[in-house]
Amino acid sequence: MDLKHYRCHKCMNEIADPGQPCAICGWHQDTPAPEGALQPETVLADRYFVGRAAFQNAECFVYAAYDRAEDARVWLREFYPHQIARRGHTDHEVLYAAEDRIAFEDWREDFRQLYSDLKKVGHLHAVTPVVEMFEEGNTVYVVEKYIASISLREHLTHSGGSIAAPAAKRLFMPLFAAISRFHAKGLIHSGICLESLYLDAKQSVWMRSGGTRQLSLREKSSDIADYCPPEQHDPNAFWSPATDVYALGAVMYRVLTGTRPTGAAARLAGDRLLAPVELDPDIPQSVSDAVMWAMELDKNNRPKTVDEFSAALLESEGSNTAVFTPAAPVIEEEEVRKPTVRTVLKISRISPSVSAFLLGLALVFLLIGYSLSILFGDVIDPLMEDVQVSDTIVEEPTHEFYEELPSFVGIYIGTLQESDAYVKEYQFKIKEDFDETYPAGVVCRQSPRAGQPIPEDGKITLYVSRGSVYVEMPNLNGCTQEFAAEQLSKLNIKYHIEEELNPTGVAGQVIRSDTEAGTRLRRFSSEVTLYVSR
């Protein structure tokens, strides 16, 4: 049995009849490939079965593919610079004109080096992992882990075009933490836009790998160019984390307002970029200011790091230290505790010089007392006993001193996990739980509680919010069955599919549901029925 005749080119599930649309995703196997792309059913490295071209830019194609050795779906990225490359007629080799040889080979080496560096970095949360690299047909292929997802652009299309500020911050804060780590590895993405960001079934945002400097210089697509700062179009400019900060600011602009941001080139020519709050007065002023700060044309006037930008975005939550403050504060402990010797005397806060002076002074008094006891015998002994007891009480904190555990409640978990100071001091055990007060990704409880002694082993259990256990039924009428099922799965809502004959409808399209849009549903227990046209 030849594998190529029994896999869908889009979803890579097994199919019984390639002449019929896929029963899982509805893809027609005879859909033509984009110009220049590999033909579906091509097999590379005697291992990778190539499906449809899911994405392309000026530098590469990205295909849905199937790894026969690992029996798993993957993404396959092919170096294919569209402006100077062409496909061989007899095989899948990538060709170029003689006058473009140097440009092609230099660009290909940059591509190879970029993904070689990404592979060495290893796994970074929210960044699609690079699994393997190989060369074939005069070009370079990159194998990336497959994550079931939809693009941010597609998500916005089906969610009204924009996302409210509180939800947007909850959605993007984990990604910001991941990009901060990405920068710490010495890497700049330089390709952050709606097409490079994806949402998985758990509503987590993932970032696909970026591109080379050549891509930024040659990419003319306005959709991508709108998210690039001026320095990305300058072959001699230096890139820094602030380069990606601009792109993140532009993405947030688009997500919050539903409006495509004015591109840097147009702004340099005199076009004005309206502040987000001017387009939507419901956007908090501090969030609008943070986005405009990130999109400053001069990189020296932008936040220098993603952490600075995320802190500015979170200021509207009541703090600029990335702490989420709920509308109704949750009191985890008594705010007033009876002070004790241990909480009043903290030896660690006394400077070394002062400690040495006090210790020396105590020794002097002890020597004087000892000398007097020899001179006056029994007369002074009772007095010295009292002094020794007093000394013991004063010295007690030195032996039994402990620090109090700080409160982690209200902090985004990514901030804690990416902080070297916290990681060195504590061993966090993470548990997830639904919470009606704190948004997803934020610590909602901790054990031991704040104010308790720090455990000797430093182990702290953090309960991270999964968000509310309740969700609203989305409006799925008119959507494809695949998309509707995907949205309900993301919300952890059980569903049933019933087919109905609908002469005026498109096969596989949702006609209606037994639950009205906006109805409050409980995750994992509520059930809905979708009626789909056949």
Task: Describe the protein.
This protein has 16 helices and 19 strands. The protein is of the alpha+beta class. The protein folds into 4 domains: 3-145, Phosphorylase Kinase, domain 1 (2-Layer Sandwich); 150-317, Orthogonal Bundle (Transferase(Phosphotransferase), domain 1), CATH 1.10.510; 347-400; 470-533, Trypsin Inhibitor V, Chain A (2-Layer Sandwich). Mean pLDDT is 80; it is low at 316-322, 325-355 and 378-402. It is 32% helix and 19% strand. The protein has helices at 101-121, 152-157, 165-184, 213-218, 222-225, 241-257, 264-268, 276-279, 285-294, 306-313, 341-344, 352-376, 381-400, 413-417, 420-425, 481-490, and strands spanning 43-44, 48-56, 60-67, 72-79, 85-87, 94-96, 130-136, 139-145, 149-151, 197-200, 205-207, 427-433, 443-447, 459-465, 470-472, 494-500, 510-513, 520-522, 527-533. The two termini are 31 Å apart.
Radius of gyration: 31 Å
How many distinct folded domains?
4
Q: What is the spatial order of strands in the main beta sheet?
A: 1-2-3-4-8-7
Distance between the termini: 31 Å
Annotated CATH homologous superfamily of the largest domain: Transferase(Phosphotransferase) domain 1
The CATH architecture term of the largest domain is Orthogonal Bundle
Q: Output the CATH topology of the largest domain.
A: Transferase(Phosphotransferase), domain 1
Instruction: Classify the secondary structure makeup into a structural class.
Output: alpha+beta
Give the DSSP E fraction (strand runs of 2 or more residues).
15-25%
CATH class of the largest domain: Mainly Alpha
The helicity comes to: 25-40%
Number of strands: 19
Strand count, sense and barrel status of the largest sheet are:
6 strands, antiparallel
Q: If helices are DSSP runs of H or I spanning 4 or more residues, what is the number of helices? A: 16
